[in-house]
Design brief:
Elements (H helix, E strand, L loop, with lengths): L2 E6 L6 H10 L5 E7 L10 H19 L2 E7 L3 H8 L3 E6 L2 H17 L4 E6 L9 H9 L10 H11 L1
Parallel strand pairs: 1-2, 1-4, 2-3, 4-5
């Protein structure tokens, strides 16, 4: 079974994330969405809320593609999380060259920790390249409309935080 791990904070999950998830289902039999517990970032949504949003957003996609998609919180090293879930592949989304520089360093370090786990980069579709959770939160905080960047359910959740 081909198991892939797509890690991130998903605070909140965006249409860009969903684009990568949808495309990753073509590469694996099971996709684990690794939800990072990053206390230093001070997330807008709790871990439970982020996991719930991911599960809600991925249920239909899982049924449509036949690929099992599960959310898995983690707070350890990414390589250790990959071992925990039986992943042979880490999936990362790229939006711009700046993303690549950071990701290139991470791949190098991860390969030193375990060279049997491959990292696969998927470029975000053009219409999603500018979307970042950080910017979604900033736009919403300042009263802007984020409905172009997230699903209707997530939009409702984000708006509720700032209304």
């Amino acid at each position: 079974m081909r198991v892939g791990l797509y890690p991130g904070t998903f605070d909140p999950i965006t249409l860009g994330h969903m684009d990568i998830i949808r495309r990753a289902t073509r590469l694996v039999d099971k996709l684990v969405i690794g939800v990072a517990i990053n206390r230093d970032k001070g997330p807008l949504f709790s871990l439970e809320e982020r996991v719930g949003m991911i599960e809600d957003e991925c249920t239909a996609l899982s049924a449509q593609t036949g690929v099992e998609i599960v959310a898995h919180p983690f707070e350890n090293l990414l390589i250790n999380c990959a071992h925990d879930v039986g992943a042979h592949m880490i999936i990362r989304g790229l939006r711009a060259v700046a993303d690549f520089e950071y990701e290139y360093q991470m791949v190098g370090m991860n390969r030193q920790l375990d060279d049997s786990i491959e990292t696969v980069f998927l470029m975000a579709e053009a219409q999603h390249q500018a979307i970042a959770s950080k910017l979604v939160k900033e736009i919403a905080r300042l009263g802007g409309d984020v409905s172009k960047f997230v699903t209707p359910r997530v939009n409702t959740e984000v708006r509720a935080r700032f209304d």
